[in-house]
Here is the input.
Amino acid sequence: MDMVNSSAVPFSIALVFIAAVITKVAWGRKTTDLVSSCTNTLTRPPAVITGITSAVLLLHTLCTKGFRAMLQEQYTKFGSVFTISFFGMKTTFLVGPEVSAHFYQGPESEISHGNFLDFTVPMCGKDVGYGVDIATRIEQSRFYLDTLKPAKLRCHFAPMLQEVEKYFAQWGQQGTVDLKQELDQLLMLISARCLLGKEIREKMVDEVFSTFHDLTENSLQLTSLLFPYAPTPTTQRRDKARARLSSIFAEIEDLLQNLMDSKYKDGRPTTEAEVTGLLIGLLFAAKHNTTSTSTWIGARLLSHTECLEAALEEQQHIVNKHGDNIDYDTLLEMSFLHCCIKEALRMHPPSTIFLRKVHKNFTVQTTEGYKYEIPRGHTIASPLVINHNIPHIYKDPDVYDPHRFSHGREEDRVGGKFTYNAFGGGRHACAGEAYAYMQVKVIWSHLLRNFELKLVSPFPKTNWLKLIPEPRGEVEVSYKRRILPRNMLEK
Ligand code: HEM
Here is the structure.
């Protein structure tokens, strides 16, 4: 079982509290007044901390057993709705699909990201995302959806495959690599080619990605999160990196054409500053999530012989049917590989928890029939680390079992729409889900077909100190070239 690192308080909990502090400052007295003026006729969720002793016990569990174990304990004790209150900051946890519908699909006027994502403004710019009003932001989300919709993905397939083939052609006949580092490099090249265009891929990929790295690293430092506009060395490095990226993007002609061609409802085309901001947002959303996911798939597959064999068998079957060449449609036949990716994401979701701010009281009802009112002003949280491990939904949740998503079992449908949330859901669902699956399948089908792989290092622990919890340390994998033998063509 992949337990939370006992010595490290995960980054996500830090974010919860940072967000809570920021929110607290921003909402200040207003929030307190609003909450206290709420009606008391409906029951409030059970409060986890009712005195100093329970606060100490909770902190003790957090520090000794970790974030997931701490939440799991509360879930077992109180059920699917409970409020944790730290230093007067209240966060209500909604665990499981029965109580999550409003969280994911409530209207922006009633439930929103609040100011949790304000840290992205200096990173992406004031012209996009959380720097603009909600109506403009919704239109910009549509630009992403239009750009990445499945119908447009076919045009990314050939360049993506070329990048993958070219990259692995550099590997020798056999050897040992750090899979995490290799996939990080490869995904940088794919993102450059498919999301930024050929010119950047060919002429300045290193500069763009080292600048992008400076931008994201410095944007996510604690000081930048807490004081985004203070003139600290971190924010200065962040702003310098952003300015450099803007000037590079301004000179490049073949940046993702779809985004550049996007138009607002009133017919206004996107500006240069908007395209730059949207591209930075896209790169941020795309690269980090996929790097960690592709590495986790490797670690999981290579430590489960049965799954590895089943994945190979599927590739063999496809090779027998279509020959060595793969195209976009071939990827759609890789249903077991699809399940392997989905299962790795269930166990290692890049976002471990989602946070929202409540602007209008709402009620939730648990499966046991308890009804709770969540008051305006509360922070609410949907913890994927628990949602994805509920035993009455996911059988033996600590076991890597891709078949749980296969036809006939489909455990993610047991509880309805919000049972599986690796890509979010509802209003803020990931725009790049289909692109992400395509990318990871292109990489892993190539690896399975062309290499015999073994995990040399122990199964990696999770680095909870990262915003996106990735495998800790090197993921050492040995490889040996092979060609999947072609049997008789199957009918
Ligand atoms: C395994 C890979 C990925 C995972 C697990 C993932 C997950 C997510 C999640 C959970 C959200 C919503 C966050 C929220 O509720 O605020 C999101 C948003 C988003 N993702 Fe992904 N993502 C992945 C890959 C990608 C890729 C490859 C792209 C682009 C090529 C992408 C583009 C986006 C965009 C544009 C948004 C923002 C949508 C909006 O604001 O309307 N993602 N992603």
In short: The first strand starts at residue 81 and ends at 86. Residues 272-302 form the longest helix (31 residues).
